[in-house]
Amino acid sequence: MKIVRALAITAALFLIHGVAFAQSCELSIDGNDAIQFSESELSVSKDCGEVTLTLNHVGSLPKSAMGHNWVLAKTSDAQAVVTDGINAGLANNYLKPDDARVLAATEVIGGGESTSITFSVADLEAGGDYTFFCSFPGHFAIMKGKFIVS
């Protein structure tokens, strides 16, 4: 009886340990009317191959007034992507069309809306310097974070 109980406890600990360290290939982040993302850092393993990211706009303002998107670029390219995106306008999600510096991006959404994208991490370098941000005019200064590939 003690052996069975010990095995059951060991199995339970193994399952808990496995769940605690499981790599998620699905990410979620919220944006709000106070020009903030809910996360300042997102992490993913190259083992995922593909990642699905969901952006939720938990505010109430329309996208024309307080829209948010989620854009991924090398940190060294991020400011230039934003600068070029301003001229592209809302119709282009504040991103220059076919901008090769954009590694992944959602559409711009307004309050109460959600959007998801699935993108490959195969070409991203583990330990590389990546930044995610919102390219809506004026948001980049505070709506950005570190994207970690391990």
Q: Specify the CATH class.
A: Mainly Beta
Radius of gyration using CA atoms only = 19 Å
Q: What name does the CATH topology carry?
A: Immunoglobulin-like
How many distinct folded domains? 1
Strand content: 25-35%
CATH architectural category: Sandwich
User: Any low-confidence stretches, pLDDT <50, length ≥5?
Assistant: 3-22
Overall 3D shape: globular
Strand arrangement within the widest β-sheet reads 2-8-7-4-5
> Mean pLDDT score, rounded?
89
SS field, number of helical segments: 3
Give the helices and strands as they follow along the chain.
Answer: HEEEHEHEEEE
Q: Residue share in helices?
A: 10-25%
End-to-end span in angstroms? Answer: 43 Å
The CATH homologous superfamily is named Cupredoxins -  blue copper proteins
Biggest sheet statistics:
5 strands, mixed
